Amino acid sequence: MSAPPKRPPSIIAPSFTSDVTFSTLTKPFELQLSHLGKTKSSSFSIKSETSVALPPIKTTDSSGSIDEPTDQEESKLKKTLNRVKSIAKSAFLKYWFLLGLVIAILLAWQFPNVGRKGGYIRAEWSIKWGAVVVIFLISGLSLRTRILAQTLLRVRLHLLIQTINLIIIPFFVFGLILLFFKLHMPVNSLLLIGVVIAASTPTTVSSNVVMTKNANGNEASALMNAALGNVLGIFVSPALVSYFQGPLLAASPEDESANTAGGSVDFIMVLKQLGLTVLLPLVIGQAIQILFTEPVAKFKVKCRLSDVSSFCLLLMVWSVFSDAVHAGSFSAVAGKDIAAVVILNFLFYVLFSAFSFLLARLPYSKRIFGPLKWLERLRYSREDTVAVMYCGATKTVAMGVPLINVLYQKGDPGTIGVLSTPLLLYHVEQLILGNIEVEILKKWVSRGQKRDAQKVQDQAAGIDDDEEGQQQTSSTSTTSVHLNRDEENAYESGVTKIEPYQSQHKLSF
């Protein structure tokens, strides 16, 4: 029996460990390179630990749904949240005073015993004196003396603004409210009297300056008239309210006694208190600003004095409404009365702004009347017109609320809150409407500036054209002189053709 055939020796495959070296396989290549003078000293190896980036694996759960990567969705969500935060932050920084006004009224409504006269914090001293002094001290520190001095001599502009703000508007509103009383309009009489008091106050200290600057208007004129108006308002506003008070009470269809809505005003006492709380802090702040201009400017920015002033104003509003709620003065004020005052204030602001614009620009048709030089001299620039509109139509709460407190301090404390309501509503509405006007007036001023720049360029181009024309005229006259002389020489020499010379001059032009 034959033996089984021998199997060929099996080729055992090398076992690949974690590190596979191909040194034996690369020796022939090393030998081939050696005769060229080149050697390969290192062996080629592959590491198993080498990581390879693989795409994310989609996994399925028991329900069969696929889990997608959510990095993009999370980034979109973060961007949306950041955008919402930035919008909310900008809106808060822009309208925080309005929000604070709502909070102050709600606090007064819920906790009237805290901020009322004779309450827990003795608001008649801590707020109605302290807050007013702080407000006008900051106003004095904020008024830039150099800018005031630059616009001090523009008497006609200042006279126009103060006439609109302290004479035309108060008497117009006074006559209109008298007409409402005669017609027995179904609106609370105290609110209508408060509308007249609001019209009798001077222009604002800060908001009109800021809005004038944002609309590319004349900021210096706005600042000067804000300071001038508040100084004049110390004397003019009490006189106007005292003059209007008697006819308004007589014409009121409701039985408003002197203790609730007015009475005799001690003018000397009013001037004394307003002088101590308004004028004296204003003068002290201005003196400090003159002596220490640079430190005051840095301190004003670092401590945000404008926001401190607005916060003190909110404290005054809180105290005034606390008195009114504690006395129950708003029980007789219906929602329709507040709505009527809101609509009335809206119409007043639009009307006063348009009236200020007409007086400042004095519009007329050049096609019909032609260019009237005397009327052009009376018209103000677009930048000045913006300042006239804002300073003429706006009214101040910082001066109005202390004025009402002083005028009616002997009467019912709750009456002050009702009388202050139209002024507070007007302040809110003028901020909203004024910011809407900013964009419109800014475009209007920009168009005027572009038109003026174009006129200057056209005039400069006209001058250049005139000079070029004069040069051409002089060269032509010189040429004609040469031609005349050549003609004379040709005539004397008997030659009549000088066409080549003439053609040379024709070609030169």
Automatic annotation (TrEMBL):
Start-end of Low complexity biased regions: 470-480
Parts of the chain that traverse the membrane: 92-109, 129-147, 159-181, 187-210, 222-244, 274-293, 305-326, 338-360
A GO CC term attached to the entry: plasma membrane
Taxonomic superkingdom: Eukaryota
Pfam families: SBF_like
InterPro entries per record: Na+/solute_symporter_sf, Put_Na-Bile_cotransptr
Keywords: Membrane, Transmembrane, Transmembrane helix
Region (Disordered): 455-497
Protein name stated in the entry: Solute carrier family 10 (Sodium/bile acid cotransporter), member 7
Species of provenance: Mucor circinelloides f. circinelloides (strain 1006PhL)
